[in-house]
Amino acid sequence: MDARNFLFGAFALLMIALASLTAVEYTQVGTLNSQLSSVESRSAQTLTTIVTVVSTPPCPSLTACGTFTYTPRGDVAVESVEGQIVNSFVYFNVTVENVGYSVVEMANYVLNTTIGANSPVLHRVPNNEGLGISVGVNLEHGQSYSLYDPTSGDGYWYEITQPGRVNVTLSFPWTETPCVNAPCTSQTLGSNTTTISAQFTFP
pTM, whole model, 2 decimals? Predict the structure, then answer.
Protein backbone atom coordinates (compact mmCIF):
# COMPACT_ATOMS: atom_id res chain seq x y z
CA MET A 1 0.00 0.00 0.00
CA ASP A 2 1.48 3.32 -1.07
CA ALA A 3 1.14 6.58 0.85
CA ARG A 4 -1.66 7.83 -1.35
CA ASN A 5 -3.86 4.78 -0.75
CA PHE A 6 -3.10 4.95 2.98
CA LEU A 7 -4.20 8.59 3.21
CA PHE A 8 -7.32 7.90 1.19
CA GLY A 9 -8.25 5.01 3.52
CA ALA A 10 -7.61 7.12 6.62
CA PHE A 11 -9.74 9.95 5.18
CA ALA A 12 -12.58 7.51 4.43
CA LEU A 13 -12.51 6.13 7.99
CA LEU A 14 -12.55 9.69 9.38
CA MET A 15 -15.60 10.59 7.30
CA ILE A 16 -17.41 7.45 8.46
CA ALA A 17 -16.63 8.32 12.12
CA LEU A 18 -17.89 11.90 11.67
CA ALA A 19 -21.08 10.67 10.03
CA SER A 20 -21.68 8.27 12.92
CA LEU A 21 -21.17 11.04 15.48
CA THR A 22 -23.55 13.35 13.60
CA ALA A 23 -26.20 10.62 13.51
CA VAL A 24 -25.82 10.00 17.27
CA GLU A 25 -26.05 13.74 18.06
CA TYR A 26 -29.09 14.09 15.81
CA THR A 27 -30.75 11.17 17.60
CA GLN A 28 -29.93 12.69 20.99
CA VAL A 29 -31.34 16.08 19.94
CA GLY A 30 -34.50 14.40 18.69
CA THR A 31 -34.86 12.50 21.98
CA LEU A 32 -34.30 15.70 23.98
CA ASN A 33 -36.90 17.57 21.92
CA SER A 34 -39.35 14.70 22.47
CA GLN A 35 -38.69 14.78 26.22
CA LEU A 36 -39.16 18.57 26.33
CA SER A 37 -42.43 18.27 24.43
CA SER A 38 -43.59 15.61 26.90
CA VAL A 39 -42.66 17.81 29.87
CA GLU A 40 -44.47 20.80 28.33
CA SER A 41 -47.51 18.63 27.68
CA ARG A 42 -47.50 17.33 31.27
CA SER A 43 -47.02 20.88 32.56
CA ALA A 44 -49.98 22.08 30.53
CA GLN A 45 -52.05 19.18 31.83
CA THR A 46 -50.97 19.95 35.40
CA LEU A 47 -51.85 23.63 35.02
CA THR A 48 -55.21 22.69 33.56
CA THR A 49 -55.85 20.47 36.58
CA ILE A 50 -54.77 23.06 39.17
CA VAL A 51 -56.53 26.12 37.77
CA THR A 52 -60.20 26.15 38.78
CA VAL A 53 -62.85 28.73 38.05
CA VAL A 54 -64.95 29.68 41.06
CA SER A 55 -68.43 30.78 40.03
CA THR A 56 -71.31 32.08 42.13
CA PRO A 57 -74.65 30.33 41.58
CA PRO A 58 -77.07 32.67 39.80
CA CYS A 59 -79.78 34.34 41.84
CA PRO A 60 -83.24 32.77 41.26
CA SER A 61 -85.60 34.47 38.84
CA LEU A 62 -87.55 37.44 40.26
CA THR A 63 -85.26 37.52 43.29
CA ALA A 64 -82.65 40.00 44.48
CA CYS A 65 -79.91 38.21 46.44
CA GLY A 66 -78.37 40.40 49.10
CA THR A 67 -74.76 40.60 50.15
CA PHE A 68 -74.73 40.48 53.94
CA THR A 69 -72.97 40.12 57.25
CA TYR A 70 -74.56 39.20 60.58
CA THR A 71 -73.98 38.94 64.32
CA PRO A 72 -73.73 37.03 66.55
CA ARG A 73 -72.10 34.05 64.85
CA GLY A 74 -73.43 31.53 67.31
CA ASP A 75 -75.71 28.52 67.03
CA VAL A 76 -77.91 30.14 64.39
CA ALA A 77 -76.22 30.60 61.00
CA VAL A 78 -77.67 32.77 58.24
CA GLU A 79 -77.55 30.85 54.96
CA SER A 80 -79.11 33.35 52.56
CA VAL A 81 -80.82 36.74 52.46
CA GLU A 82 -83.14 37.38 49.51
CA GLY A 83 -85.73 39.84 48.33
CA GLN A 84 -88.47 38.07 46.37
CA ILE A 85 -90.05 40.41 43.83
CA VAL A 86 -93.78 40.22 43.08
CA ASN A 87 -94.78 42.93 40.60
CA SER A 88 -93.38 46.06 42.27
CA PHE A 89 -93.34 44.63 45.80
CA VAL A 90 -90.63 42.84 47.78
CA TYR A 91 -90.87 40.10 50.39
CA PHE A 92 -87.66 39.59 52.34
CA ASN A 93 -86.63 35.99 52.94
CA VAL A 94 -83.92 34.95 55.42
CA THR A 95 -82.96 31.26 55.61
CA VAL A 96 -81.30 30.19 58.87
CA GLU A 97 -79.79 26.93 60.11
CA ASN A 98 -79.25 25.57 63.60
CA VAL A 99 -75.52 24.76 63.65
CA GLY A 100 -75.45 24.17 67.42
CA TYR A 101 -76.58 21.17 69.43
CA SER A 102 -79.38 22.73 71.49
CA VAL A 103 -82.88 23.26 70.13
CA VAL A 104 -83.45 26.72 68.66
CA GLU A 105 -86.94 28.17 69.04
CA MET A 106 -88.47 31.11 67.17
CA ALA A 107 -91.79 32.24 65.74
CA ASN A 108 -92.53 32.39 62.03
CA TYR A 109 -93.38 36.12 62.08
CA VAL A 110 -90.36 37.52 63.98
CA LEU A 111 -88.29 38.82 61.05
CA ASN A 112 -88.08 42.60 61.27
CA THR A 113 -86.83 44.82 58.43
CA THR A 114 -85.49 48.37 58.58
CA ILE A 115 -84.85 50.20 55.30
CA GLY A 116 -82.05 52.73 54.97
CA ALA A 117 -83.21 56.24 55.87
CA ASN A 118 -84.73 58.25 53.00
CA SER A 119 -84.19 55.45 50.50
CA PRO A 120 -85.49 56.44 47.04
CA VAL A 121 -85.50 52.75 46.01
CA LEU A 122 -87.73 51.03 48.56
CA HIS A 123 -90.66 52.26 50.66
CA ARG A 124 -92.86 50.61 53.25
CA VAL A 125 -96.52 51.06 52.29
CA PRO A 126 -99.77 50.05 54.07
CA ASN A 127 -101.53 46.80 53.23
CA ASN A 128 -104.68 45.58 54.95
CA GLU A 129 -104.87 42.22 53.21
CA GLY A 130 -104.46 38.83 54.88
CA LEU A 131 -104.89 37.33 58.30
CA GLY A 132 -101.87 36.81 60.54
CA ILE A 133 -101.06 33.23 61.55
CA SER A 134 -98.53 32.59 64.31
CA VAL A 135 -96.49 29.39 64.15
CA GLY A 136 -93.80 28.27 66.58
CA VAL A 137 -90.66 26.85 64.99
CA ASN A 138 -88.27 24.40 66.68
CA LEU A 139 -84.99 23.69 64.90
CA GLU A 140 -82.73 20.82 65.91
CA HIS A 141 -79.10 20.51 64.83
CA GLY A 142 -78.76 20.79 61.04
CA GLN A 143 -82.33 21.92 60.40
CA SER A 144 -83.13 25.08 58.41
CA TYR A 145 -86.07 27.44 58.21
CA SER A 146 -86.99 30.49 56.12
CA LEU A 147 -88.34 33.62 57.79
CA TYR A 148 -90.34 36.17 55.77
CA ASP A 149 -91.14 39.84 56.12
CA PRO A 150 -93.85 40.82 55.61
CA THR A 151 -96.01 37.83 56.46
CA SER A 152 -99.75 37.60 56.01
CA GLY A 153 -101.57 40.08 58.23
CA ASP A 154 -98.59 42.34 58.93
CA GLY A 155 -100.44 45.30 57.41
CA TYR A 156 -97.67 46.55 55.11
CA TRP A 157 -95.65 45.84 51.97
CA TYR A 158 -92.25 46.93 50.70
CA GLU A 159 -92.63 48.67 47.37
CA ILE A 160 -89.86 49.28 44.80
CA THR A 161 -90.19 52.92 43.76
CA GLN A 162 -87.19 53.05 41.40
CA PRO A 163 -84.26 50.84 40.36
CA GLY A 164 -81.16 51.04 42.49
CA ARG A 165 -79.27 49.88 45.56
CA VAL A 166 -80.59 49.91 49.10
CA ASN A 167 -79.17 49.03 52.52
CA VAL A 168 -81.41 46.97 54.77
CA THR A 169 -81.13 45.78 58.38
CA LEU A 170 -82.96 42.58 59.26
CA SER A 171 -83.23 41.05 62.72
CA PHE A 172 -85.01 38.21 64.51
CA PRO A 173 -85.03 36.92 68.13
CA TRP A 174 -84.54 33.27 69.07
CA THR A 175 -83.99 31.14 72.17
CA GLU A 176 -82.18 27.92 72.97
CA THR A 177 -83.53 25.03 75.03
CA PRO A 178 -82.02 21.61 75.84
CA CYS A 179 -84.92 19.80 74.16
CA VAL A 180 -88.54 20.22 73.10
CA ASN A 181 -90.09 17.38 75.09
CA ALA A 182 -91.29 17.51 78.72
CA PRO A 183 -90.02 18.10 81.30
CA CYS A 184 -87.38 20.41 79.78
CA THR A 185 -89.52 22.58 77.49
CA SER A 186 -89.55 25.42 80.01
CA GLN A 187 -85.79 25.47 80.46
CA THR A 188 -84.12 28.24 78.48
CA LEU A 189 -80.39 28.26 77.86
CA GLY A 190 -80.35 31.77 76.45
CA SER A 191 -82.10 34.37 74.34
CA ASN A 192 -80.45 36.06 71.38
CA THR A 193 -81.22 38.37 68.49
CA THR A 194 -79.48 37.92 65.16
CA THR A 195 -78.90 41.18 63.28
CA ILE A 196 -78.16 41.19 59.54
CA SER A 197 -76.72 44.06 57.53
CA ALA A 198 -77.59 43.50 53.86
CA GLN A 199 -77.40 45.35 50.58
CA PHE A 200 -79.73 44.74 47.64
CA THR A 201 -79.85 45.97 44.06
CA PHE A 202 -83.36 46.08 42.65
CA PRO A 203 -84.11 46.34 38.91
Answer: 0.64
